[in-house]
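Q: Make up one entry.
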Amino acid sequence: MKQNTSFAFYFVVFSLLMLYGCSNAEKEPLTVDNILTTPDEYVGQTVTVKGKATHVCAKSGMKLFLEGSREVHTIRVESNSTLGKFDKACVDNEVVVKGILVEEKITEADLKKMEEEIVENRSVTHGEDGEACETEQKAEGVAAGSSEMDRVNQFRERLAERKASEGKDYLSFYHIAANSYSVVEK
């Protein structure tokens, strides 16, 4: 009888340790590919994402770009006043970011407003010296070196394609509103 009680006691303790260890285990971070393949699963949720940092915005320092397994899988990460500027030493390193996945929707009305701003020379350009940021363009799926008007036209073509194929009258762009980040030690 004593042997059965000892076995039961150790079994219960072991089970509790396993349960506690599994529930408190640090979850593996998602990859950029995970996020961009099924973004609707994560919109509005806090996510932890790991990817290669390819660029920190030279203009503000408040944008970091993470790349997935392929160059076309790039997501923008935005900092805030509490977190501050991203360290430029992140570039070319694996970075883990924790934040909320945000969906931005671009409609035809947004494209018309962009066109007006371009024509009136009020548009905000990304990059330096009036040149578009190639990393931002990559994250948006825009051809590198495109002008702001080319960007609008490419969006308009994609919007028409999406409306025809999915019935949605907007484009979706995703970014992570960061709460924290860290460089992965090599």
Summary: Confidence is low (pLDDT under 50) at residues 12-25.
